[in-house]
Amino acid sequence: MPNWLVLATEALPAAALPAAALPPLPVALPLLVCALLLIGSRALPIWLPDLVAVLTALAVAALCATIAGRASAEGPLVTWFGGWTPRDGAALGIGFSADAASAGIATFAALLFTATLVFAWNFFDRTHGHFQILMLLFLAAMVGFCFTRDLFNLFVWFEVMSVTAFALTAYRLDDAAIAGAMTFTVTNSLAGILMLAGIGLLYARAGALDFADLAAAVARAGHDPVTAAAFCLVAAGLMIKAAVVPFQFWLADAHAVASSPVSVIFSGAMVAMGLFGLAKLVWVVFGGSAQIRDAVGVFMIAGGAVTALFGGWMALIQRHLKRLLAFSTISHAGIMLVGIGALSQGATAGLLLYVVGHGLVKGALFMVAGILLALRSSVDEIALRGRGRGLAGAGAALGLAGLLLGGLPVGLLDLGARALHGALEAGGHRLALAASLLGTAMTGAAVLRAGARIFLGWGGRPGNEGRAPTLEEQERGNRAYWVMFVPCGALLVLDLAAPTGALVAAAPGWTRSFTGRAALPGDAGALALGAAWMPAASVGLALFLAAFALFGDRVAPAAAAHIRRLHAGPAALLNASHSGLVGDDVVWIVLGLAVLALALAVV
Amino acid sequence: MSPRLRVLLLGLAALVLAPCALAVIAAMPEFGTAIAPYGARINAVAPAERNIANMVTAINFDLRGLDTLGEEFMLLAAVTGTVVLLRGRRGERDGDRAARLPGRAVVPRSEAVILACRIAGPLTALFGLYVTVHASLTPGGGFQGGAVLASACVLIYLGEGYAGWRRGVRSAVLDAIEGGGALLVVLCGLGPMLVGAAFMQNVLPFGTFGALLSGGLVLVANLGVAAAVTAGFSQLVLEFLEETRAPRPDGADGGDDA
């Protein structure tokens, strides 16, 4: 365990508690505060819920960090709720098993909530603390989702996340918000139903719900249609949350219409939770089935690569900044999915680091979008051209975050990306590696192009993004610029200041504890960072693409016009395929389910 | 995409999914095979170690009480979300007064309805309490009892009219009861930790098997859930009824009574 972590966590009062008492606390604390806020909702002064929510989120972060520190030293902290410890080697009740990596992810989620609640200070003052209640419930659900070792309990927290998210999406209550929330509600309820059906199938086979008992039953079952179908349904549910192609259609609509503080959480943490849960189940529950491992190796690698490219391309042809960022989240979700498909310890370490790095950078980006919405009353890149002047800090943050997203070789996101690159190279997944580099470059280019247009006024003639759907919207400008900018900057500082050396040293141990097993055959098990030229190439490509989008007309008019014509048809088709109709989204989900079932049946 | 294309794609997917589903069904455990081992063990543990006769309650509030904690707060999230969305559109003003649509006739209720509601209301509430406190013994418990109690609350509207309902049922009070019930459930989790037990460990005396006061902490948690469910459902009814009072943009009348 790195020294800085020992020092940081020993300073906290919770460090003195017995190990088993710690994991329930970061879930129970926000629930307790929610209940108290609801009791006093009419009597409290309007600034108090904001303050209480920020402090609670911060306390949850401190508790989770303490757990991460303890788990790093002592191994996973296990709690059995109600004191129902396993008997005769089988669980009776529900357990939490907080390993260092899961606790680290929970810490990150709590920090993101803290920053978001500061960012949203005073934004939701009309609702008697109801917004803060929903946000804290959201956080409690995420922490429970990270810590649980019981499949049905995982589903419960998954659903609490969904229910809070539905209401938070529709909060703005105009037609677009209601439509987006409706699509989100239907698709993600479908995700819940699929997951529940899968859990039912697995319970029928295993007669247990605890991860360890399930893993034993899955390993016993061998090549078994029931286990495979259970995995298919549970994985589809989680991949809907994670917005993997072709399950992704809801995401851009929901993220684009949600209020910007909510979008920060959605893109920064909620999507990543889907991938985190999938990684955990693939390793901890289904890892013993060769059939499922083989299908994961094919579907997740191919699906992740396609998602990375698709999201990147879609991001390039958007003009609505939040929609653009939403598609970049899809692209990065694809890259993380490839990390699951690689099925190696190094790739899993990369995935976990990437989740945090991406969440920090993407959160900061959505905050910049929120600043523009509040102070410039638009997030349309073309309508805003040059109007970002005077918001130098936000512009710098957008530029830096765009470079980080495109692969700038510093900070946590880059560390995760390089760990993924190294693992993909070692696993022989060269095409997926190329796809993830291209996806990275395209999302970076899209953000840089939008930033240069908004804050520098460059790029007078829009390309195909000019024909993308956009939306007139604004958010209340009742908050001071610095209140919104400080959390945004803090997220970027966290990404840049992460102690990469200490993390590289700790990652193999944390990953072993997270996956619950030693490396699979053929996996060295070490954290191998990819070559330095890869991030450099992707950030170079991002800069080139952005520059071409902005200045192509002036430098090489003939080539630019030709590419634009060639690109116009597919771009229009892609934008049209995101019809926002629930029926279409469901058809795509069923098709994705069929492809995954086929992979499981054939491989 | 066009409806025809949708059906075509769904048909393609069904071509793959149907044989897979058949294979899964063929491989499932036979219909009527013995109860899963987990269930069998719980059937043995709950009466012997907790003096609880109702296995469903033993699972929901003791063995797997954490799921119920999550579900209780899922309900709270759903109610809070609904309130935020409905109230957000209407605005917060006039929060505690019954909204009136101008020009809508106030139809007096028949005295038979009033009498029936005044008799049925308290009886329904009593039954709700009965279902709640017998959680350890007979089918039912906090969720079911709370739903019955909320029905009793809605009978106030039916019997006393909308203005009477709004005078008697205050949104702030419902918030407090809902939050208080949820708080009680959380404290059922945290409380035992104060005496060194595990989160939600049943540390109260279990009573005798079959007695009303059996099951220990299970009864307390059920009371908390019942309070939260009663107030949560009543809050939903209140918000939805108020929603019908909001003037519509086209000027049409919702067309219900006063």
TrEMBL record, chain A:
UniProt KW Membrane keyword: yes
GO cellular-component term (any): plasma membrane
Compartments, as annotated in UniProt: Cell membrane; Membrane
Keyword Transmembrane helix: yes
Lipid bilayer topology: Multi-pass membrane protein
UniProt xrefs under Pfam families: Proton_antipo_M
Principal location listed in the UniProt entry: membrane
Spans traversing the lipid bilayer: 20-39, 51-71, 91-124, 131-148, 154-173, 185-206, 226-252, 264-286, 298-317, 324-345, 351-375, 391-412, 432-459, 480-506, 526-551
Keywords for this protein: Cell membrane, Membrane, Transmembrane, Transmembrane helix
Domain NADH:quinone oxidoreductase/Mrp antiporter transmembrane: 149-385
Record-linked InterPro entries: CPA3_Na-H_Antiporter_D, ND/Mrp_TM
Family: Belongs to the CPA3 antiporters (TC 2.A.63) subunit D family.
Protein name: NAD(P)H-quinone oxidoreductase subunit 2, chloroplastic
Protein encoded by which gene: ndhB_3
Automatic annotation (TrEMBL), chain B:
Domain Na+/H+ antiporter MnhB subunit-related protein, residue spans: 115-233
Record-linked PANTHER family: NA(+)/H(+) ANTIPORTER SUBUNIT B (PTHR33932), NA(+)_H(+) ANTIPORTER SUBUNIT B (PTHR33932:SF4)
Superkingdom of the source species: Bacteria
Nucleotide-binding recorded as keyword: no
Compartments reported by the entry: Cell membrane
Name used for this protein in its record: Na+/H+ antiporter MnhB subunit-related protein domain-containing protein
Pfam families per record: MnhB (PF04039)
Principal location listed in the UniProt entry: membrane
Signal sequence annotation: 1-23
Keywords: Cell membrane, Membrane, Signal, Transmembrane, Transmembrane helix
